[in-house]
């Protein structure tokens, strides 16, 4: 080594010492700068300036020394280069910050804004650079390894036991050599990858792959097979901890058992197993149905297993809930609606000991309400929604028709999975990823999205982390992920590590290849094979995952948490495996799974609440169902049942009744382009001929945004000003044989252009003969100006009037009451409504990605919405008006009915007295609105106990 080389190498090794100085200076400078801004304390100005100057200088010095360290100590790999480039960028940005500060102090800028922005960006870049530096020195999983589920917490390998077992024989079998190789590779992964992996190959040595190990390092082979003493690797790991050449460095010397295993491995020929090294715990793929305990005196299978669990935990059986509480719990879980007061009283009075099981059966038989309740769960899980990113480009499609019909018919779960994975046109929206515009990260290709969605929602495994590199939180590798994603690709995929091609092509394979082969010539064949492999009974992962999700939904906390990390230890493995195996035995019947849980005594136990959220996660002991908040949809539907409909229109109409009428308005044209309707009045006409004959009924429906007056043959018959309300009228006595004219004067409110539309339908039934139907469509004529009332006449000359424009349903959705059927009390179920700010505030996700659980903790935004939200208070105001029209001044009846409908019980004497005092003898709308609000924010209303 030349004199200049060792000097440069020495200087490079000062990088770790020097680099921390600018970090501290620049971070403190930023905090003091914020202090100056907030407290107007200019006395700190000069000190902050010097910190920035010194920090910038040492950032540049650190970058230079870091470059010398990389070059002279021969560090290499993507991680090293990324750290270097970020370090240089940080130094340059720090220099720019100094320049901006100098210019600002000299008055060349009005204030210090540009300098402060640059300082903030510099500190942010310092953080990113420092993170990569930590990954280089301590390993890429340095932070995650100490987390629950991380390597250090979960990988306590019993090297001593394996060493003792293998040392008893001179010649190892192939199976024993495989065991030994996997264990040694695990030692490498835990202690050596931070310096010798594909991301950082110090000394050109890679120990993370067989090819890298065989190639050796810059000094040649690292192992001489059969001779530990002649092997460089063994020499390094047995050096004194204080020796400069000892490996691994950073004070992480190997344990005696680990060194002995490496020695034995070399003695036995350094066999390299092709098996994956499992650094993290992994649940067994297959499941077996545990034998139910015979010692328990419980009757239900779940209760028998829980009885054993309680004995093991030293717990006594808690009491079960009363009938009213059970009824609300079962109703909400099965159909998402509050039980009606009459049904509650009948159930409470029933003396049949099997009444709870019979109630569960009845609720699960209510197919439409069951489907509309559980539709939200499946929409979250399968990232299905009615609008959002990807719909514009056609890269994302709804699966609502398929999903609704599947739930309605209680399609077996394995069949649902097959149709999702090997889709028809109706179900392809699940695996068809969002087609992003512009440059797309390799981990967000549509094929990768399909693998990520299936992995998370159906298999409970995090594929996203392993889409960029080998996972830091599971045993999943980049190779496996690309093999899985390749199933959905039209062409061969090249592996990208951290968005950089590595020159390796993916081989088509399922994550669990032991279940079967999925390789095929065409995409269609691969999907068919995958759909068959995934639903095999041997794939316990699939059936455990859905069983765990349903337990979580019904009991408030999964047997395994988080729900998407199914390799984590369950609080009762036998219970989970029994549920999954019984689910398979039932033919993958989802309602059977629900019934098994809901008819158990365990489900009926009194609910449990915890003061701190972490008590539900760490060291959890099951003592009963958790108290649960109503979901956004359940809360909205409960308000609709008790007070007034929250929503009036749905984006998806499950009734199947096709509305022929179109939303029409006068076409506004400017510069040869159609524009939004302007405020003001517009006029609509539709003439039609009626034959002779006795009319039995002529029912008309109308909804106009914003207001209207309806005329028939010149006579004003109806007016309204709320598009959400469907006004209905029998026009029988106003019709005549021959020519008739329907005319509508519509008005668009507001001060600027905004959507407007007329929706009208009329069915005329004769005593004999075919009915006649008149609907709003583009055959209607419109204008924006009329003189007098001559336009109402049947013989009016329509010259100058133009055909109406169909404005579609985009701004109004489908009104649930716009139907000739008698559905007076119907309201729009929230699960069928497209994303709405109210639902979003209450926790409904955007469904751009898979969402397997919603946050159960209330937020400040939710509190503000329920306290002062314009939309929520508008619903309560409408409800108050409806109740006053229905009940008049009968305050006592109002209070009684409000308690029965919302809480399922009568008010106590004290509760009734408080509310009667609030309402008074002649309640006003505002008083009743306040009473509604008081009831709706009660925990008893908002929670499932």
Automatic annotation (TrEMBL):
Coiled coil: none annotated. Keywords: Heme, Iron, Membrane, Metal-binding, Transmembrane, Transmembrane helix. Residues 179-270 form the Cytochrome c domain. PROSITE patterns: CYTC. InterPro entries: Cyt_c-like_dom, Cyt_c-like_dom_sf, Cyt_c_Planctomycete-type, DUF1549, DUF1553, DUF2231_TM, Galactose-bd-like_sf. One of its GO terms (biological process) is carbohydrate metabolic process. It holds the Pfam family PSCyt2. The chain crosses the membrane at residues 20-38, 50-69, 84-101, 113-136. GO terms for molecular function: electron transfer activity; heme binding; hydrolase activity, hydrolyzing O-glycosyl compounds; metal ion binding. This is Cytochrome c domain-containing protein. It comes from Echinicola pacifica.
């Amino acid at each position: 080594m030349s004199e200049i080389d060792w000097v440069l190498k020495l200087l490079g090794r000062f990088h770790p010492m020097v680099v921390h100085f600018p970090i501290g200076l620049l971070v403190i400078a930023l905090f003091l700068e914020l202090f100056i801004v907030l407290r107007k304390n200019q006395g700190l100005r000069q000190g902050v300036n010097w910190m920035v100057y010194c920090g910038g200088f040492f950032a540049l010095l650190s970058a230079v020394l870091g470059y010398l360290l990389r070059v002279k100590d021969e560090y290499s790999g993507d991680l090293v280069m990324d750290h270097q480039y970020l370090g240089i960028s940080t130094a340059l940005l720090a220099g720019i910050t100094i320049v901006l500060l100098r210019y600002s102090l000299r008055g060349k800028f009005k204030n210090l804004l540009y300098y402060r922005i640059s300082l903030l960006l510099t500190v942010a870049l310092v953080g990113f650079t420092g993170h990569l530096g930590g990954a280089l020195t301590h390993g890429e999983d340095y932070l995650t390894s100490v987390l629950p589920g991380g390597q250090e917490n979960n990988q306590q390998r019993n090297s001593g036991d394996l060493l003792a077992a293998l040392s008893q024989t001179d010649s190892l079998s192939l199976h024993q050599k495989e065991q030994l190789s996997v264990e040694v590779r695990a030692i490498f992964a835990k202690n050596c990858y931070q310096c010798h992996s594909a991301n950082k190959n110090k000394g050109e040595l890679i120990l993370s792959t067989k090819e890298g190990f065989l190639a050796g390092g810059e000094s040649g082979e690292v192992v001489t097979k059969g001779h530990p003493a002649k092997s460089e690797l063994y020499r390094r790991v047995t050096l004194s901890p204080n020796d400069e050449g000892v490996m691994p460095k950073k004070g992480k010397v190997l344990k005696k058992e680990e060194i002995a295993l490496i020695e034995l491995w070399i003695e036995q020929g350094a066999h390299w197993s092709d098996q994956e090294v499992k650094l993290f715990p992994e649940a067994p793929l297959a499941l077996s149905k545990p034998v139910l305990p015979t010692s328990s005196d419980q009757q239900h299978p779940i209760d028998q297993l829980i009885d054993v669990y309680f004995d093991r935990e030293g717990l006594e059986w808690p009491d079960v809930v009363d009938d009213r509480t059970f009824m609300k719990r079962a109703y909400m879980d099965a159909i998402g609606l509050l039980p009606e007061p009459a049904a509650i009283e009948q159930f409470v009075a029933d003396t049949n000991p099997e009444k709870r099981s019979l109630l569960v059966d009845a609720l699960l038989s209510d197919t439409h309400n069951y489907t509309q309740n559980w539709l939200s769960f499946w929409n979250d899980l399968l990232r299905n929604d009615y609008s959002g990113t990807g719909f514009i480009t056609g890269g994302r499609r709804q699966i609502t028709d398929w999903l609704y019909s599947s739930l309605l018919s209680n399609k077996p779960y394995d069949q649902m999975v097959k149709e999702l994975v090997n889709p028809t046109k109706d179900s392809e929206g699940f695996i068809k990823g969002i087609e992003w515009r512009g440059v797309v990260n390799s981990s967000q290709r549509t094929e990768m999205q399909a693998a990520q969605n299936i992995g998370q929602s159906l298999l409970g495994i995090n594929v996203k982390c392993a889409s960029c590199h080998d996972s830091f939180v599971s045993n999943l590798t980049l190779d496996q992920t690309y093999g899985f994603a390749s199933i959905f690709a039209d062409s061969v995929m090249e592996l990208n590590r951290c968005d950089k091609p590595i020159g390796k092509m993916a081989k088509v394979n399922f994550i669990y290849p032991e279940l079967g082969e999925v390789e095929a010539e065409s995409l269609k064949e691969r999907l068919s094979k995958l759909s068959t492999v995934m639903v095999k009974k041997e794939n316990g992962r699939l059936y455990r995952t859905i069983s765990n999700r349903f337990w979580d939904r019904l009991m408030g906390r999964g047997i395994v948490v988080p729900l998407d990390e199914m390799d984590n230890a369950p609080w009762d493995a036998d219970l989970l495996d029994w549920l999954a195996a019984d689910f398979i035995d039932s033919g993958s019947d989802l309602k059977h799974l629900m019934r098994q849980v809901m008819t158990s005594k365990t489900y009926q136990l009194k609910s449990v609440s915890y003061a701190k959220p972490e008590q539900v996660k760490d060291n959890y002991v099951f003592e009963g169902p958790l108290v649960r908040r109503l979901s956004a949809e359940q809360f909205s539907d409960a308000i609709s049942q008790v007070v007034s409909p929250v929503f009036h229109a749905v984006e998806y109409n499950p009734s199947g009744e096709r509305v022929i009428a179109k939303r029409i308005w006068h076409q506004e044209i400017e510069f040869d382009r159609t524009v939004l309707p302007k405020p003001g009045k517009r006029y609509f006409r539709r003439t039609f001929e009626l034959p002779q004959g006795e009319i039995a009924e002529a029912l008309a429906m109308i909804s106009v945004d914003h207001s209207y007056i309806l005329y028939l043959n010149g006579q004003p018959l109806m007016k309204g000003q709320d598009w959400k309300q469907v006004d209905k009228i029998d026009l029988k006595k106003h019709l005549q044989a021959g020519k008739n004219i329907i005319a509508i004067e519509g008005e668009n409110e507001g001060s600027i252009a905004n959507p407007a539309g007329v929706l009208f339908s009329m069915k005329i039934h004769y005593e004999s003969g075919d009915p006649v139907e008149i609907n709003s469509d583009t055959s209607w004529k419109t204008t924006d100006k009329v003189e007098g009332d001559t336009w109402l006449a049947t013989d009016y000359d329509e010259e100058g009037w133009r055909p109406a424009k169909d404005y579609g349903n985009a701004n109004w959705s489908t009104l649930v009451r716009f139907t000739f059927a008698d559905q007076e009390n119907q309201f729009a179920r929230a699960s069928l409504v497209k994303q709405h700010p109210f639902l979003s505030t209450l926790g409904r996700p955007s469904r751009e990605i898979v969402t397997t659980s919603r946050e159960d903790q209330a937020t400040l935004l939710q509190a503000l919405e329920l306290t002062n939200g314009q939309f929520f208070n508008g619903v309560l105001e409408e409800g108050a008006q409806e109740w006053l029209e229905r009940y008049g001044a009968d305050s006592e009846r109002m209070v009684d009915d409000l308690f029965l409908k919302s809480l399922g019980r009568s008010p106590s004497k004290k509760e009734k007295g408080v509310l009667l005092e609030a309402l008074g003898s002649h309640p006003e709308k505002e008083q009743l609105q306040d009473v509604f609000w008081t009831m709706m924010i009660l925990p008893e209303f908002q929670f499932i106990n």
